[in-house]
Amino acid sequence: GAVVSQHPSWVICKSGTSVKIECRSLDFQATTMFWYRQFPKQSLMLMATSNEGSKATYEQGVEKDKFLINHASLTLSTLTVTSAHPEDSSFYICSAPVGTQRQFFGPGTRLTVL
Amino acid sequence: AQSVTQPDIHITVSEGASLELRCNYSYGATPYLFWYVQSPGQGLQLLLKYFSGDTLVQGIKGFEAEFKRSQSSFNLRKPSVHWSDAAEYFCAVRLDQAGTALIFGKGTTLSVSS
C-alpha cells in the first residue's frame, strides 16, 4: 500500500529557532498533502492544505507566516515552524490522499520547544 | 459546519468483553466515514471506512462499524476486546469531494482491564 513518511520523527529545539518537518509520499505522487496538529490528549486539527506548485491553503487561525509550507515536488511537502515557541510544541502529522477514497497518514513528528 | 462528536472521552473494558465506541456526525449529506486507531508512539491506522452500500462494514483486527443514517451515527464495535486494543480511537468524516481533508472527533481512549 501507499506509504507516507515524515522526518524527523521527533525534534527538540530552543525557543526562537526554526524547525523544518518533511513529509514524503514514498511510492505515489501527491499533488495535495494535509498538515495536522495534535496537542496532547486532543484530536487532530487540520492546519493547512499543501498544494504542489502553488500556495498552501491555511485553516482559520493558523498563521501562514509562522507555519511555512512548501510543496515543491509531487512527493515532498515541508512544514517549517518559524521562531518556534513552547506553545508550538505538538505532534505534527501529514497525510496524502490517494484517489478519491484513501488517505494515508505519516507517522507524525513530535516537536518540543524548550 | 461539519463536526464529529465522540461522546465518550475514556472507556474501560474488561478483556474479553464487548466494546462499542460512539460517533455522531453533523453534515447535511452522507459523508465518507472512517475509524482510525492511534497507539502510543504510533501513527494513525485505518480500521475501517464507509462510503456507500452495506451499512455494516468490517474492518481489521475484528472491528466493525454500523452506519445509521437516521441517527447520524457510525459506532465502532468489537465482540471481544484484547489487551492490545488499548489505544486512542478517532472517528473521522470527509466530505464527498475527492482530496478533501478529514475532520476528526476528539477521540476516545480505550483502556483494557484484565
Textual characterization of the structure:
- The complex is a heterodimer of chains A (114) and B (114).
- Helix content of chain A is 0%, strand content 55%.
- Chain A has 114 residues and is an all-beta fold.
- In chain A, the strands form two sheets. In chain A, strands 2, 4, 5, 6, 9, 10 and 11 form a seven-stranded mixed β-sheet that branches. A four-stranded antiparallel β-sheet of chain A has the order 1-3-8-7, with no helix packed on it.
- The radius of gyration of chain A is 13 Å and the shape is globular.
- Chain B has 114 residues and is mainly beta.
- Chain B contains no helices and twelve strands.
- In chain B, strands 2, 5, 6, 10, 11 and 12 form a six-stranded mixed β-sheet that branches. A four-stranded antiparallel β-sheet of chain B has the order 3-9-8-7, with no helix packed on it.
- The relative contact order of chain B is 0.33.
- Chain A binds chain B through residues 32, 34, 36, 41-46, 49, 93, 95, 97, 99-101, 103, 105-108, and chain B through 32, 36, 42-44, 49, 51, 90, 94, 98-107, 109.
Summarize the structure.
The complex is a heterodimer of chains A (114) and B (114). Chain A has no helices and eleven strands.
Return Rg of chain A in Å. 13 Å
Helix content of chain B: under 10%
| Biggest sheet character of chain B | 6 strands, mixed
Number of strands of chain B: 12
Round the mean pLDDT of chain B to the nearest integer and report it.
91
Number of helical segments with 4 or more residues of chain B: 0
Q: H/E order of the elements of chain A?
A: EEEEEEEEEEE
Helix segment tally of chain A: 0
Helix fraction of chain A by DSSP (H/I, runs of at least 4): under 10%
User: Average pLDDT value of chain A?
Assistant: 92
Quick one: biggest sheet of chain A? 7 strands, mixed
Shape of chain B: globular
Question: What is the N-to-C order of secondary-structure elements of chain B (H for helix, E for strand)?
Answer: EEEEEEEEEEEE
Assembly level: heterodimer
The rounded distance between the terminal residues' Cα atoms of chain B is: 41 Å
Give me the Rg of chain B, rounded. 14 Å
Quickly give the structural class of chain B.
mainly beta
Shape of chain A: globular
Low confidence ranges of chain B: none
